[in-house]
Write a structure and sequence with these properties.
The protein contains 31 helices and no strands. Among the domains are: 256 residues, no CATH class; 91 residues, Alpha Horseshoe (Serine Threonine Protein Phosphatase 5, Tetratricopeptide repeat). Helix 20 runs antiparallel to helix 21 and helix 29 packs parallel to helix 31. The protein is mainly alpha-helical and 663 residues long.
C-alpha cells in the first residue's frame, strides 16, 4: 500500500473524476455500424426471457447471417440493457452507462494487477503511484475512446475486464489455484469475446518472468517450462475446449470476411506499427479504415513491420535480463500476445480496427510507464535536488493526461452523430467504400440527394463489388422517383450478395411504393428465410398484412379495421392507461368516428388529468364535427397544459376560425 494513504486515495478519486469528465459527453451517443444488426434490428435482445437461447443458438447474436457468432455473453448484456431501458426498444443511453461502469471497474482490477507486477520486479514505496499512473494512462488514452463509444465493442472492454479479474485471482491467491476459481471469470470472458483465450499465455509469461524469476535467455529450460505449463494447463485446456465448442455452435453462414491468409499476415506486420504509432500519437483514429492487403513480403511496409517487431522483441529480451526491468518485457509481450487473435493467421475483412487494441494497450501502458519510471530512478538524486526539473516532470504528466482527456472528448463528439462520424471516416480513410457510402446515406437522410449520389458513386469506384452500395443506390433512386433504375440496383445488389436480408427489406419497400404489394410480401418472405427474426422485416410484413391500405377489396379492409379496433378496445379495457386510450382515440379519428374519438380521449383524461395530447385529440374531433365551442374549450385546455405545443395551437386556431365563420 502507498506510504501516504491519504494522498493515494485523493489521487485515485481524482482519476475517477477525470475519467468521468473525459467521457461525460458520450452517454447519449447513438448506435453505429455493427450496432445496427446486433442490437437495433436484432429481435432476440428485446426480451430478457430470450437469454437462455443465446447460449444454445448463435443465430440470436445478429440479424445478419454472415455475422452470427457464438457470443452469448454480449447478447445477454445487450438484452439486460434493453430491459433496463423499459421501452421494449434498445436505448443507447442505458448501454453507455453500463459499459462505462464496467470500464471503471476494469480500472480497479488493472491497478491491482499492475501494482503486483511492479512489486515483483522492484518493490518500493512509489509503486502504488506508478501503478495508478499506468492505470490513468490507459483509462484516459484517446485511442480507447473508439472502444468505449462503439457500443458493440463492449465485447473488447468487458472481455478485457474478465481477463484482468482472472489474472488478479490467479496472482493474488496462488494457494487457491488448485481450486481453479480463476477459471470462472475466464469462462465468462470467453462468452463475451474469443481473445479471452490469451489469458493462459499471459499467465504463463507472468509466472516465467516473476514467480520463477527467469529471463528470456532461459526460455529453453525445459524442466521449468514444463512446470509453468502445468500451472496454467487448466487455462489452456479450457481455452481449447471453449474455442472448439464455439466453432461447433457457429452457423455455417458465418464469415469473418477475409480470404487471403498469407497476404493478411504480411499486412499485419505493418498494422502492428500503426497500432504502436497510434498509442504514442493518436491523431489518425478512424472508425473504419481503408487499408488494403500487402501481397509481397518485400513491400516496404512489410519490411518496416518485420524490422520493428524484431527490434521491440529484442528490447523485451534485453529488459528481461534484469528483474527490475521485466515489466517492460511483460508489457511488450502482452501487446503481441493480445494481438494474436486478430493480427495473425485468421483473416478478417478489415485488416485493422482501432478498437481492437483496447486489450493490447494495457501491455504498452505497463512497458512505457515502467520504462520512464526506471529512467527517473536512475537520475532520482538529480531530479529531487532540482526543483525546476521535478516541477517539469509533474507538468509533463499533467499536460500529457490533459491532452488525452481533450482527445477523448473530441472523439466522443465525433461519435455523437452519424454525419460527424462518417465525414471523419471519409477524411481519414478516403478509399474506404463503406465509409463513403455511409456518409452518402447521411446526406440522403437530410434530403441532399445529389450529394448522396456523389458519395455513392465515389464508393462504387473504390469498392465496385460491395452489395450495400447498390442497395443504397436502389433506395436513392426510389425516393427520387426512378423505379426502373431502383429495381436494377436492387437486383445487382442481390446478384453480388444474395445472403443480405437488408437488401430484401429495402427492395420490398420499393415494390410497395409501386403498389406491387404481393411482390413486396414475397420479397420480405425471402429475407425472413435468411434472417427469421429480423425486426424490420417482421414489422414490415405485419404492416403489409394488416394495414387496410394494402388490402385490395373494401370488404377485406373493413374486416381488418374492425379487428384492429376490437383489439385496441379490449387492450384499453384490460389495461387502462392514458396512452392506450389516446391511441384508441387516434384510431377512431382516422376512421371518422369522431364522437368515439372524444369519448376515448376523455377516458385518457380521467386517468391523467393534465394530458394535453388527449385534449388536443378532443379539439381535433370537435373541429371535424364543426362543434366549435367544445373544440375551443378543449383546444384552450391543451395549450394551457402545454404552451409549447404547436399542434395544439394550430388546432385551436382552426376552432377559432370556424367559430368566426372563416371555414
Amino acid at each position: 500500500m502507498a506510504k501516504n494513504r491519504g494522498l493515494f486515495y485523493v489521487l485515485s478519486l481524482l482519476l475517477v473524476g477525470l475519467v468521468c469528465f473525459a467521457y461525460w459527453n458520450h452517454f447519449h451517443n447513438p448506435f453505429h455500424f455493427d450496432d445496427e444488426h446486433t442490437i437495433v434490428t436484432n429481435y432476440w435482445i428485446r426480451d430478457i426471457k430470450n437469454i437462455p437461447h443465446f447460449f444454445t443458438d448463435a443465430t440470436t447474436f445478429s440479424s445478419l447471417p454472415a455475422n452470427q457468432a457464438w457470443r452469448p455473453g454480449i447478447s445477454t448484456l445487450d438484452a439486460i440493457d434493453c430491459w433496463i431501458g423499459g421501452k421494449g426498444e434498445p436505448m443507447p443511453f442505458y448501454y453507455h452507462v453500463h459499459i462505462f461502469i464496467d470500464f471503471l471497474i476494469l480500472g480497479i482490477f488493472m491497478y491491482l494487477f499492475v501494482v503486483k507486477v511492479y512489486d515483483f520486479a522492484f518493490k518500493n514505496e512509489l509503486n502504488p503511484y506508478i501503478a495508478l499512473l499506468t492505470t490513468a494512462v490507459f483509462m484516459l488514452h484517446t485511442g480507447n475512446a473508439e472502444t468505449i463509444n462503439y457500443i458493440i465493442s463492449r465485447s473488447d472492454s468487458d472481455s478485457t475486464l474478465m481477463i484482468l479479474i482472472t489474472l488478479c485471482v490467479f496472482v493474488y491467491y496462488p494457494n487457491l489455484r488448485k481450486y481453479l476459481l480463476y477459471l470462472i471469470p475466464m469462462f465468462i470472458g470467453f462468452m463475451i469475446k474469443e481473445p479471452t483465450v490469451m489469458v493462459g499465455p499471459i499467465a504463463f509469461l507472468f509466472i516465467f518472468l516473476f514467480e520463477e524469476n527467469m529471463s528470456l535467455k532461459q526460455s529453453f529450460d525445459i524442466k521449468k517450462d514444463l512446470k509453468i505449463l502445468l500451472a496454467v494447463l487448466p487455462m489452456l485446456l479450457l481455452a481449447v475446449g471453449l474455442f472448439w465448442f464455439s466453432q461447433a455452435q457457429t452457423p455455417d453462414m458465418h464469415t469473418l470476411g477475409g480470404s487471403d491468409r498469407w497476404a493478411y499476415m504480411k499486412t499485419e506486420l505493418f498494422v502492428m506499427v500503426h497500432y504502436v504509432n497510434n498509442f504514442f500519437f493518436p491523431f489518425n483514429l478512424s472508425a473504419d479504415t481503408d487499408w488494403g492487403l500487402i501481397t509481397s513480403i518485400f513491400d516496404d511496409r512489410a519490411i518496416i513491420g518485420i524490422c520493428f517487431i524484431i527490434s521491440t522483441l529484442y528490447m523485451a529480451y534485453l529488459a528481461s535480463l534484469d528483474i527490475k526491468s521485466r515489466p517492460i518485457t511483460f508489457g511488450i509481450l502482452w501487446f503481441y500476445l493480445a494481438l494474436v487473435p486478430t493480427s495473425s493467421v485468421v483473416p478478417f475483412s478489415e485488416v485493422l480496427n482501432d478498437h481492437r487494441v483496447f486489450f493490447p494497450y494495457i501491455g504498452l501502458c505497463m512497458a512505457t510507464v515502467w520504462a520512464l519510471f526506471l529512467l527517473y530512478k536512475k537520475y532520482e538524486s538529480q531530479v529531487t535536488s532540482n526543483l525546476l526539473l521535478k516541477s517539469g516532470i509533474y507538468l509533463f504528466i499533467v499536460l500529457f493526461l490533459g491532452a488525452h482527456i481533450y482527445g477523448v472528448r473530441e472523439r466522443c463528439k465525433v461519435w455523437s452523430d452519424e454525419a460527424l462520424l462518417w465525414k471523419d471516416v471519409t477524411v481519414k480513410s478516403p478509399h474506404n467504400g463503406r465509409g463513403l457510402m455511409n456518409y452518402g446515406l447521411v446526406l440522403m437522410g437530410k434530403g441532399d440527394y445529389s450529394g448522396a449520389l456523389e458519395y455513392y458513386n465515389k464508393a462504387k469506384q473504390e469498392w465496385p463489388y460491395y452489395s450495400y452500395i447498390y442497395v443504397n443506390l436502389g433506395v436513392l433512386d426510389n425516393v427520387m422517383g426512378k423505379p426502373v433504375e431502383s429495381e436494377q440496383s436492387f437486383k445487382y445488389a442481390l446478384q453480388l450478395n444474395a445472403q443480405n436480408p437488408n437488401c430484401y427489406f429495402y427492395y420490398a419497400i420499393m415494390l410497395k411504393n409501386q403498389g406491387r404489394i404481393d411482390e413486396a410480401k414475397a420479397m420480405v418472405q425471402k429475407g425472413l428465410v435468411l434472417s427469421p427474426h429480423h425486426i424490420d422485416l417482421l414489422r414490415f410484413l405485419d404492416d403489409l398484412n394488416t394495414n387496410p391500405a394494402y388490402v385490395k377489396s373494401a370488404e377485406e379492409r373493413a374486416i381488418l379495421v374492425k379487428k384492429k379496433l376490437e383489439g385496441m378496445e379490449a387492450k384499453a379495457k384490460e389495461n387502462p392507461t392514458p396512452e392506450g386510450y389516446l391511441n384508441l382515440s387516434l384510431e377512431y379519428y382516422n376512421q371518422g368516428r369522431y364522437l368515439d374519438c372524444v369519448h376515448a380521449a376523455e377516458e385518457a383524461v380521467k386517468i391523467k388529468p393534465d394530458y394535453d395530447l388527449a385534449y388536443n385529440n378532443i379539439c381535433s374531433a370537435y373541429n371535424a364535427l364543426h362543434d366549435w365551442d367544445n373544440a375551443i374549450a378543449a383546444g384552450k385546455k391543451a395549450v394551457e397544459l402545454n404552451p409549447n405545443s404547436q399542434l395544439a395551437k394550430n388546432n385551436l386556431q382552426v376552432s377559432l376560425d370556424g367559430k368566426k365563420g372563416k371555414l
